[in-house]
Amino acid sequence: MEKSEAATIEIAGTSREQKGKAPLLGAPVVHARAAGYKRGVSIFDLILRISAAAAALAATITMGTTEQTLPFFTQFFQFQASYDDLPTFTFFVIAMAIVTGYLVLSVPFSIVCIARPAAVGPRLLLIICDTLTVTLATAAGGASAAIVYLAHNGNSDANWLAICQQFDDFCQRTSGAVVASFIAVALLIFLVVLSALALRKH
Q1: Tens digit of pLDDT for each residue in 131-148?
Q2: For the chain, N or C: smaller number of CB within 10 Å?
Q3: Distance of alpha carbon 92 from alpha carbon 113, whole angstroms
């Protein structure tokens, strides 16, 4: 009787130990998979961030160097169009320069997220700043798009004439800058979504 009781106690103790240790064997595997997923998201984040910075820089340079002077002039007037003639385009250049600077400065934080995929602080900081940057870039691109539309089509109700038939190069460059800004906005939105997905996995 004593032997059978001892055997029963030993078997019961062994089964309890196995039950207690079994979940621990799968924990490192699950953690490694989660870390690999977050590292992959962080690498994609870095690629999108560099691409968005390039698009924002292109928009800034294109708009900031836009100027056209017509080949004919009078004794008192010279027909010239420059981005700084319109406050909206000036705001566009300043806003997109800020967006470009932020994206460049945020690259080290993105690299930290690659090296430490489980870190929450840098990713949370990025998603907050990315959201604010999306707002600024959208405001600049949307306001400038309205001006570009008026330059192409005018507004008969307000007696605003279309100027793109005369200043064709000016309109092409401003239109290209606005398109580049919206590309940067789209990439920034993807960045916010990626950061949200990575935080959700925590």
Answers
A1: 999 999 999 999 999 999
A2: N
A3: 31
